[in-house]
């Protein structure tokens, strides 16, 4: 039997829309079946519609705090005017038996047993990427800390070893100190930094020799269009000491000055605080005159390499990268470079006298000697022989040039590859050379200032291969004004002359005789020894290597620039180091 749904009587409102104010007034005889006490709730479009009735609500588990039982919109509250119980007689379809069979669909995934690898993987799967990233980052940080710790320990141990090796490599004195020598004084370098002395402009006493013009095309050389370093076998180079110079002897006999020296010796004294290797200068007091000399076979004839660097060089003397071998190689490079960058067309600028050390008919390297005199005191003058290697015309005026070459032997020692950095980062290359060869560059600058050269040219010469010390290439040439470059490298002219003046004043107080000024090999100081009159003439000359230790080079590797007689030992010293 089908049930009939009875709507009931609907009262009529003759006064307007909506239910009447009183149903009894309009239809007193009508009996209503509507639920009583149901309030009328006004409706606004801005309000959200909720549920008309919540059949899923359980009154047994009602919220005692009178707060909504659900955070969802439309959830009924215990204070809601529509919170009432349905009358089963009025709504017969609301059968409690139907509620027992009603089930909600649960969208949660079924629980799995908490065992087995699948459960562990699935449980941690949502956090796995984040946890893995954190673990990887943590491991990277730990690895970086460990690597940094190892690097610190390695560098610390290496610096200690390098310091020991460095000291061992330079511990040998440039001259053997004999027991009979009497040490008169020792001067620490710290006192040199406080000295200052101004000298007036020098005057030229005499100019000798001849100069060739500088080839400006070498200023355009780059590592991409490098030039091979040539060898000048027929040109003679001279490194004559002060007392063996006939011009200085003549000027001494004429009483032109009181103190005599060469630019190499003066530059060594002026830049003494920057030196690391040991060196020595022979001082002879004859009457009221003072002569600064160098020994035969002295280190002053060579050019130091990596003298002020912290990277140690091989200790074996026959190694091509040892300090001695590099010094010989640098002297050989410097000689050939100074002749290759010239215009060799026979056009020369001659001076008052020819080269005082050359024999008639000899081919002499392009060099001019300027004998210059400085006033040190009211009755004290100093004459020094200064060298310039070339000349160039600037605005129809001749300007003197000094030519020197820096040499690269192995980029791993300097840390800068010239072929890659010279064209784009020339300042970085020069800064590295100033750090590794501060003394050599300062001496070159001092010599240029002493000779009043208008320009000093620095060449960058590198080996063709790091293990080939016979063949070289020119990678670039840069020019500087000597005084500007001196200011750049913090070389004070007044301090330079202050050092020379203090040593001259000290030596002028000594008695007549022979003395030697030795730079201590392990400490920043110099010592003055009184030596016999016949010292350094026969017994104190450095002995060559035994014949069984000498290795003769191949014919094609014979070095260029052989000096005349015994004036330069670069050729012989290079032969000792060839392997």
From TrEMBL:
Comp. bias (Low complexity): 22-33
Molecular function (Gene Ontology), one example: translation initiation factor activity
GO biological process, one term: formation of cytoplasmic translation initiation complex
Domain of life: Eukaryota
Pfam family, one: eIF-3_zeta
Biased composition (Basic and acidic residues): 130-149, 570-579
Keywords, in A-Z order: Cytoplasm, Initiation factor, Protein biosynthesis, RNA-binding
Acidic residues composition-biased segments: 539-560
RNA gate: annotated span: 299-313
Localisation per UniProt entry: Cytoplasm
Compositionally biased spans, kind Polar residues: 59-69
Region feature (Disordered): 13-33, 59-81, 97-149, 539-579
CC terms in the record's Gene Ontology section: eukaryotic 43S preinitiation complex; eukaryotic 48S preinitiation complex; eukaryotic translation initiation factor 3 complex
Function of the protein: mRNA cap-binding component of the eukaryotic translation initiation factor 3 (eIF-3) complex, which is involved in protein synthesis of a specialized repertoire of mRNAs and, together with other initiation factors, stimulates binding of mRNA and methionyl-tRNAi to the 40S ribosome. The eIF-3 complex specifically targets and initiates translation of a subset of mRNAs involved in cell proliferation. In the eIF-3 complex, eif3d specifically recognizes and binds the 7-methylguanosine cap of a subset of mRNAs.
Family (UniProt): Belongs to the eIF-3 subunit D family.
Comment text on domains: The RNA gate region regulates mRNA cap recognition to prevent promiscuous mRNA-binding before assembly of eif3d into the full eukaryotic translation initiation factor 3 (eIF-3) complex.
Assembly and oligomerization: Component of the eukaryotic translation initiation factor 3 (eIF-3) complex.
Entry protein name: Eukaryotic translation initiation factor 3 subunit D
Organism of this sequence: Gossypium laxum
